[in-house]
Amino acid sequence: MKPFTYARPDEASDAVAALVADPDARFLAGGTNLLDHLKLGVVEPSQLVDVNRVTSTEITELDDGTLRIGAGVANSDLAADSRVRRRYPAVAAAILAGASGQLRNMASTGGNLLQRTRCPYFADATTPCTKRSLDEACSAREGWARYHAILGASESCIATHPSDLAVALVAVDAQVQVLGPDGARTIPIGEFHRLPGDDPTRDTVLEHGDLVTAVDLPAPAPAVTNSTYRKVRDRASYAFALVSVAAGLEVRDGVVADVRIALGGVAHKPWRATTAEAALRGRPATDEEFRAAITAELEAAEPVESPLGGNAYKIPLVTGTVVSTLRGLAGGTS
Amino acid sequence: MTTTIPLSITVDGEQRDLDVDPRTTLLDALRERLAVTTPKKGCDHGQCGACTVLVDGRRVLSCLTLAVAKDGADVVTANGLAPDGGSHPVTEAFLANDAFQCGYCTPGQVCSAVGAIDEARRGMPSAATADLAGDDVVLDRAEIAERMSGNLCRCAAYVNIVTAVEEAASR
């Protein structure tokens, strides 16, 4: 590990200023992903700016019913909050589907959104990776692509975003509060993460020095209160998603009044299934309609064929998982 | 040369002062600087749980924690769980139920179990909790397996580990 200096400011503006003054400085929150990358040589910062004194660890309810989650709230505390569990069940379930008890105690809300892909070539500094350096090539396209993207990928990168929480936040239309060099701003979660395009080094729209200060959950619509998260993985616990679904459903008189579908493990960002949602609104809440809607969404899928294992299996896996999850939310057996 | 940073932490009830390079993990500070070898280095990447300790009462991975970030913290290893060097009920349950073979993962398993039992008593849910909106957690075998999934045992003593945690939680 290359040497770095350590700073622990008492004001958020000082933390932002420290990064602005040093292009190679990084924020440190829970550290669960960053420490791993420091050891692997994936990142080599000059300075770590500890933000644990400047990010809130409180969850507060605003006058308009918004639930504001401080960026420093531990994942385990977020999942345990009774308001989150009752009003936004997909959010609590998504957190609990990820990592381990120890990691959830350490990982912060802001850091969860900013974790990097688990593409094995990204984590292995001895293999080429466009996400580490635009001068290199993607090793996954011709390599071990089983965990990789089927939607929205580019020639340069087929990595997926690993966060479970972020998928649920997309389904409930969360807003990310950011403090940057020019002041505070709000970014809808659906616009927070990027597709790789020709610059896969950037996972989000944040600029250097932007600090996530809070995540806002808007007052829950009925489809958010009736929501859940379903994750499919290689083992029953403590594994990243092959695919996952955050879904919410409101049915009136047998007809879909409102539906939210966000997919994990399929793209460089949490994938809001807007085509499927549009196809379902106003339609009967039946398996046939659910299947037709997600099939329409996945027409854009471009699975990777690779000698070391491709990912075409994700298309039927997403289809079945979405149908089953929506059936459960409609009152049937999931 | 990197400048070192002064650090003061409590380890198993004893205050310890030292200067650390900012790169030092809490695990390395404990083992290599303070000769507290109870937490073990397994993977050193947060995948195995052998380094689990309690920091300010919560179970965490000491290999993914920077020591400098924990100035002033109360650190408890498996050796300091019971007051006055006594034996903790979770440790006793591990012994009574043969919940280990080689023992390398055991200090991490024990600390994790203490943390997991405390989390369940405080009503914190897990992925195995049937009613997410409920306030009570029943620590059955499925709950224990899920809550302990961050602790790997290469001897695969899992069946007895779950029994030990079940027994300790019921006391």
Automatic annotation (TrEMBL), chain A:
The name this protein goes by in its record: Xanthine dehydrogenase family protein subunit M
Matching InterPro entries: CO_DH_flav_C (IPR005107), CO_DH_flav_C_dom_sf (IPR036683), Diverse_Substr_Oxidored (IPR051312), FAD-bd_PCMH (IPR016166), FAD-bd_PCMH-like_sf (IPR036318), FAD-bd_PCMH_sub1 (IPR016167), FAD-bd_PCMH_sub2 (IPR016169), Mopterin_DH_FAD-bd (IPR002346)
Domain FAD-binding PCMH-type as annotated: residue spans: 1-222
Keywords recorded for this protein, A-Z: Oxidoreductase
Native source species: Actinomycetospora termitidis
From TrEMBL, chain B:
Entry protein name: 2Fe-2S iron-sulfur cluster-binding protein
Keyword field: Iron, Metal-binding, Oxidoreductase
Superkingdom of origin organism: Bacteria
Gene3D superfamilies, per the entry: 3.10.20.30, [2Fe-2S]-binding domain
Phosphoprotein listed as a keyword: no
Start and end residues of each 2Fe-2S ferredoxin-type domain: 5-81
CDD domains tied to this protein: fer2
Pfam assignment, any one: Fer2
Gene source species: Actinomycetospora termitidis
PROSITE patterns: 2FE2S_FER_1 (PS00197), 2FE2S_FER_2 (PS51085)
Alphabetical list of SUPFAM superfamilies matching this protein: 2Fe-2S ferredoxin-like, CO dehydrogenase ISP C-domain like
